[in-house]
């Protein structure tokens, strides 16, 4: 017999007034037994320890026996009575026991401390018989009801594929299926993600629709979600949420689960019962997050991943020195727009380039499909024929698994000398005082972000 020790310390403060002193004067006697002492494999029983002569909280270590599942939280019952004018007190500890196989099982004698004094709990034996036909039918009914429950309410996570590249964003959905006969009263919480290797967009209001599956009609609440892989390796991902269901007060379920009672699946309205919280969890998805290849990675790549196209345009071809020019670079398609960094155009002795203003056209929450726009303000510093360099941009296509250089075009700009122009940010010199009344050229143009 393999012995595992369960520790418990019964700390129940209630004592029957008037019997505490009597209990201290009585001799302590302890009994132990199973009730019932013989069961079939599919049944449960109770291991009961009765302490005569005391109602004080005992403490001790209950040995566990291999093949028996014993609850670590006993039920407690205190009693006091007079028998032929003699007072009597007792305390009962009841442990729920579920056998794992048939055979004979004995919980050996063990020590229990009562009123600071150790006492021996006698051994007790349980006989577990093989399941009979009634047990087999009951087990089959329970399995069917559990299967029906899984078909009545379940959560699915749908993604485009089973692998992602590190930094890639994919679009998916979290779908809650509710059988039309299941009386859901409300959704307690939105789906909660379990999987630290992925970041996600905000989960907002669901899309409600109707569908049929396996001969059952369902109401489906679908939450679109954009997931971004943040960590290389194999990872698990699943979602869980809680709903409230109306159930009848029926105790005839063979499993004891109020959601598995027969009327649950017979009555489409069930109506006049109580509310119960019910947790539903999706299956665990195993997703591979692959690292981006180093081979063939262009210098212009800064993390953009997707299936996209680019375009570059300017709002002027001829300007005067100091006049701002807008360069618009757009990225259109499907990709990780939520984490896509802005390309950089370097300033030179001929042009000054400010940081870009950017905007997104599409679903602002998901940021998976649409157009990302970057607007750069370029200020020419010298007259003449000036080339504005191409906006450097490259992305990784997860479908073809290769890098694509999608830099913008080089724009030629004719810059006239015009009137004498002063650099808006010259070094400190004797000319500073004369420039105080000159409005900086960078304020002559306003970006969309302003």
UniProtKB/TrEMBL annotation:
<protein>
    <recommendedName>
        <fullName>Protein BatD</fullName>
    </recommendedName>
</protein>
<dbReference type="InterPro" id="IPR025738">
    <property type="entry name" value="BatD"/>
</dbReference>
<feature type="compositionally biased region" description="Polar residues">
    <location>
        <begin position="428"/>
        <end position="450"/>
    </location>
</feature>
<dbReference type="Pfam" id="PF13584">
    <property type="entry name" value="BatD"/>
</dbReference>
<feature type="region of interest" description="Disordered">
    <location>
        <begin position="420"/>
        <end position="450"/>
    </location>
</feature>
């Amino acid at each position: 017999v393999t012995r595992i020790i369960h520790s418990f310390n019964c700390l129940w403060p209630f004592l029957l007034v008037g019997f505490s002193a009597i209990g201290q004067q009585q001799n302590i006697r302890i009994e132990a037994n199973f009730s019932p002492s013989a069961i079939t494999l599919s049944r449960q029983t109770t291991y009961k320890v009765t302490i005569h002569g005391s109602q004080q909280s005992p403490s001790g270590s209950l040995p566990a026996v291999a093949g028996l599942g014993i609850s670590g939280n006993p039920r407690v019952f205190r009693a006091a009575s007079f028998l032929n004018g003699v007072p009597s007190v007792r305390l009962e500890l009841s442990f729920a026991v579920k056998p794992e196989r048939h055979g004979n099982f004995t919980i050996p004698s063990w020590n229990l401390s009562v009123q600071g004094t150790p006492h021996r709990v006698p051994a007790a034996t349980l006989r577990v018989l093989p399941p009979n036909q009634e047990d087999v039918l009951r087990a089959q009914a329970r399995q069917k009801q559990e299967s029906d429950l899984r078909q009545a309410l379940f959560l699915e996570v749908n993604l485009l594929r089973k692998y992602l590249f590190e930094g890639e964003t994919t679009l998916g959905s979290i779908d809650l299926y509710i059988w039309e006969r299941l009386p859901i009263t409300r959704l307690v919480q939105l789906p909660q993600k379990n999987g630290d290797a992925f970041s996600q967009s905000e989960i907002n209001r669901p899309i409600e629709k109707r569908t049929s599956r396996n001969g059952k009609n369902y109401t489906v609440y679908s939450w679109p979600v954009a997931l971004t892989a943040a960590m290389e390796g194999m990872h698990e991902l699943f979602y869980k949420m809680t709903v409230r269901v109306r159930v009848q007060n029926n105790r005839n379920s063979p499993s004891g689960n109020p959601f598995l009672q027969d009327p649950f699946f017979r009555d489409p309205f069930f109506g006049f019962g109580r509310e119960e919280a019910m947790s539903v969890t999706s299956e665990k998805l195993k997703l591979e997050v692959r690292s981006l290849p180093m081979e063939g990675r262009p210098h212009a790549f800064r993390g953009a991943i997707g299936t996209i196209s680019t375009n570059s345009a300017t709002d002027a071809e001829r300007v005067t020195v100091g006049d701002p020019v807008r360069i618009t670079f757009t990225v259109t398609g499907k990709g990780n727009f939520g984490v896509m960094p802005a390309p950089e155009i370097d300033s030179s002795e001929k042009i000054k380039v400010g940081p870009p203003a950017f905007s997104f056209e599409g679903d602002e929450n998901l940021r998976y499909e649409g157009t990302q726009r970057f607007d750069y303000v370029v200020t020419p510093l010298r007259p003449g024929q000036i080339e504005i360099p191409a906006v450097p941009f490259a992305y990784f296509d997860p479908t073809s698994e290769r890098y694509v250089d999608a830099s913008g075009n080089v724009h030629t700009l004719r810059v006239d000398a015009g009137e004498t122009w002063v650099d808006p940010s010259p070094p400190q010199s004797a000319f500073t005082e004369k420039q105080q009344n000159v409005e900086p050229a960078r304020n002559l143009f306003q970006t969309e972000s302003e």
